[in-house]
Design a protein that fits this description.
By secondary structure, this protein is mostly helical. It has 5 helices and 2 strands, in the order αββαααα. It is elongated and about 75 Å long.
């Protein structure tokens, strides 16, 4: 549906607008009449929205983002917002050749490491020992 070459889109904003994931603001006489996204039968948009919906129970950073949005707004709007974020990520992965890195998982692993170090220090001090950190092994 999209293809690997996204050079036909001038920017990520044009790509998201083509997917109809950007709000279409209708203004008349200086007053905003509506600002929802327009309907579309684009299959790439449908796939991104299904992927966004599946993040509701995910432990990733995107799942946390979806749940934060659901707390602020209704679920369909949060779903569209997360699909928009996924579309931006897809655009940058295809144009820049970057791999996806889940920042939430990295933070979680670092927090687990810090907690285990703190627990080891507590156990060592309870036994009368003191831990001395070594240089990391490459």
């Amino acid at each position: 549906e999209i293809g690997p070459d996204l050079s036909r889109f001038a920017s990520v904003k044009h790509f998201c607008s083509w997917l109809r994931l950007c709000p279409a603001t209708k203004i008349s006489g200086g007053k905003t009449l509506s600002s929802g996204t327009r309907p579309s039968a684009n299959r790439a948009r449908q796939a991104l929205k299904i992927a966004a919906m599946s993040l509701s129970r995910s432990d990733s950073a995107l799942g946390a983002f979806y749940r934060r949005l659901c707390a602020r707004m209704d679920k369909p709007r949060a779903n569209t917002a997360v699909a928009h974020k996924l579309a931006r990520m897809v655009y940058f992965m295809l144009t820049r050749g970057e791999a996806f890195v889940d920042q939430g998982q990295q933070r979680y692993e670092e927090q687990q490491r810090q907690r285990s170090i703190a627990a080891l220090r507590r156990r060592a001090s309870a036994l009368g020992f003191q831990l001395q950190p070594n240089a990391p092994i490459p």
